[in-house]
Amino acid sequence: MQLETERLLLREFVEDDWRAVLDYQVNPEYLRFYPWTQRTEVDVRSFVRMFCNWSKETPRRRFQIAIVLKENGRLIGNGGLRKYAAHSEIADIGYELDPRYWGRGYATEAARRLLQFGFEELNLHRIWADCIEENTASAHVLEKIGMRYEGLQRETEWMKGRWWSIKLYGMLEKDWRS
User: Fold this and answer.
1) Are the CB atoms for 117 and 174 separated by under 8 Å?
2) Between the chain's N and C termini, which has fewer beta carbons within 10 Å?
3) CA 78 to CA 70: how far, in whole Å?
4) What is the pLDDT of residues 37-80, one digit of tens each?
5) Quick check: helix, strand or coil at residue 2?
């Protein structure tokens, strides 16, 4: 599977992508909203291998793909749609970017293309997302792509020695079409 936007190529992961992923996942800015305090080669190789394995599922229910700059082929993150059952018409969307590429619209561009893929090619009925309340940049991306804020789960995630609240977003296929 391969999707394109004006500036990005969204492609399947390959095992050798682990180096580029490790390069950004060791960044403390990246780690701030994840449960990990550090990332190792072993961690990231396993992470990328998981996505490679997902691409071989039949029928496929998880589409986690590398986000690559068209101009130079550099892997700058990943994003995906994940259904919990093969025949489900509901999926969640997620994305992560190398902090060196934050603030340039890449996450919005990739997430918008993933929504299009979900509604127009997978024929999904609903796509939802969540993000840590303090991750205002991620919430802003979800709002920019047209997802509706649906509520706050207060202190529902225990991570890094404290409780975190989670913002919930969603979009229906009819919202996408309108």
Assistant:
1) no
2) C
3) 14
4) 999 999 999 999 999 999 999 999 999 999 999 999 999 999 99
5) strand
**Per-position DSSP letters for 140-178, written without gaps between them:** HHHHHTTPEEEEEEEEEEEETTEEEEEEEEEEEHHHHH-
Q: Which two tokens stand for residue 114?
A: 């993933």
One-letter amino acid identity for 40? T
Whether the full predicted model's pTM is greater than 0.85, yes or no, is yes
- Token pair 């969307």 is at which residue? 93
Residue 100 lies in a domain: yes
- Tell me what pLDDT residue 86 has: 85
Question: Residues 98, 77: contact at Cβ < 8 Å?
Answer: yes
Beta strands in the chain, from DSSP E residues, in sequence order: 2-4, 8-11, 62-69, 75-83, 90-97, 126-132, 148-159, 162-172
Task: Give me the pLDDT at residue 5, please.
Answer: 97
The segments of the chain whose pLDDT lies below 50 read none
Q: How far is CA 8 from CA 53, 55, 110, 152, in A?
A: 23, 20, 7, 32
Which DSSP helix (H) or strand (E) runs through 108?
A: helix 106-116
Structural domains counted in the chain: 1
